[in-house]
Design goal:
416 residues, alpha/beta, Rossmann fold, 3 domains, five-stranded parallel beta sheet, 17 helices, 16% strand, globular
């Protein structure tokens, strides 16, 4: 990883690189989504064969329930135990996040209440580069089930036996072997083989993220989630642990952005050495590219400058291995924060219970990560009695006339 000093110029360069990658991805995704919207299955099949090497005419779009059940029966005990553990923790958090129905009286005879209804149909995008991300299936399907969503369709470019086994444990029966921007287009607009959904969830590469934003005028999406980003901030601590956290996110893709931010030049050099040593211990990985092209070690002049940069960047993952309680109040924008030296980022990716579908590309300045609330609609109900009508009527007529909306006023006056 390269070591750079944090200056206005270096920060501008880092942000510009992220913006240029997003613009190119949007151009390509726009072409693919438009083609799927226009030609349906023909485009879906063609792009899937071109980009993923999958012949949907031969293999079929959807995986049969027998194959899913068989994967569940043949799954090893260790995998089953790990999936069930993750599901248990994610479900506990999801239940805590679920919005509740409530009812209050704002005036005598004026009752406002909230109903919570699940979204009827959703699509869960599961990344599938070298390996399908079993954890993402858990992170999207479990809160959907807690919310009460009935129709859950899963798409993944390369669904493997582990993913199918996890789907069997969860009772998910609709899994399509499609991915990329073409899968997002199919879910958003529907094809003969892929019914359209009301909302799309899940992380993906830059093309998937761009495609989700493109279709968002016609189909709801959760949030921009990808490519992966991580920042570790520390001025002291275990350099090897810090390097390992950086590589854990860097291995997701060649454009994953992992950054170590520090005010210590000595620690910066130690972490750089550890990154090199750890890469030599790991099998071939996209991290070899991403740490050189998309990540960096950033040396800030002081802690205030470091946190101004961190909050402007608004990383998907932020680790504070040292002095976390003291530093947390400085954090204004991050998808999730790992506090303390043992808060290895993969614990949150898989098992802690906090959702790993998190905002990227600066979106953490606007919202947090995926929660059960994203899978429901909160419907307000207004019940007005005669006493309540009398309480409200005069002031409503006054405000309506002030806005020049005389039909609004008349709707009140005719009821008197």
């Amino acid at each position: 990883m390269k070591i750079i000093k944090l200056t206005a110029a270096s920060e501008k360069k880092l942000f510009k690189a992220r913006k240029l990658r997003d613009a190119e991805a949007e151009r390509i995704a726009t072409e693919i989504v438009a083609d799927v919207r226009k030609r349906g299955d023909k485009a879906l099949f063609a792009w899937t064969e071109k980009l993923d090497g999958t012949d949907l005419k031969k293999d079929g779009v959807w995986i049969g329930e027998k194959e899913i059940s068989a994967a569940g029966r043949t799954a090893g005990k260790e995998l089953t135990k790990a999936v069930e553990h993750a599901v248990r923790n994610v479900r506990r958090v999801a239940k805590q996040q679920l919005p509740k129905a409530w009812s209050i009286e704002t005036d005598d005879g004026v009752r406002i209440s909230q109903r919570v209804e699940p979204i009827e149909s959703i699509g869960c995008y599961i990344p599938g580069g070298s390996f399908a991300l079993v954890s993402t299936l858990i992170m999207t399907a479990v809160p959907a089930q807690v919310a009460g969503v009935k129709d859950i369709a899963v798409v993944c470019p390369r669904p493997n036996a582990a993913l199918l086994a996890a789907a069997n444990i969860l009772g998910v029966k609709k899994i399509a072997r499609i991915g990329g921007a073409q899968a997002i287009g199919a879910l958003a607009y529907g094809t003969k083989n892929v019914p359209r959904v009301e909302k799309i969830f899940g992380p993906g590469n830059q093309f998937v993220t761009a495609a989700k934003q493109i279709v968002s005028n016609d189909c709801a999406i959760d949030l921009p989630a990808g490519p992966t980003e991580a920042i570790v901030y520390a001025n002291r601590g275990n350099a090897r642990w810090i390097a390992a956290d950086l590589l854990a996110q860097a291995e997701h893709a060649k454009d994953a952005g992992s950054f170590f931010v520090t005010t210590s030049g000595n620690l910066a050099r130690e972490v750089k050495r550890e990154v090199g040593w750890l890469l030599d211990e790991l099998p071939a990985s996209p991290a070899r590219v991403s740490t050189l092209t998309s990540g960096a070690i950033v040396v800030a002049p002081n802690a205030s400058a470091a946190f101004e940069f961190i909050n402007r960047f608004a990383p998907e993952h932020l680790s504070l291995p040292e002095n976390a309680n003291e530093l947390l109040p400085r954090v204004r924008a991050a998808g999730t924060v790992f506090a303390g030296p043992l808060g290895a980022q993969p614990l949150g990716d898989y098992m802690s219970g906090s959702n790993h579908v998190l905002p990227t590309g600066g979106w953490a300045r606007r919202r947090g990560g995926l929660s059960t609330g994203d899978f429901v609609k909160c419907i307000s109900v207004q019940t007005i009695s005669a006493r309540g009508f009398a309480k409200l009527a005069d002031d409503v007529v006054t405000l309506a006339k002030a806005e020049g909306l005389h039909a609004h006023a008349k709707a009140i006056e005719v009821r008197r």
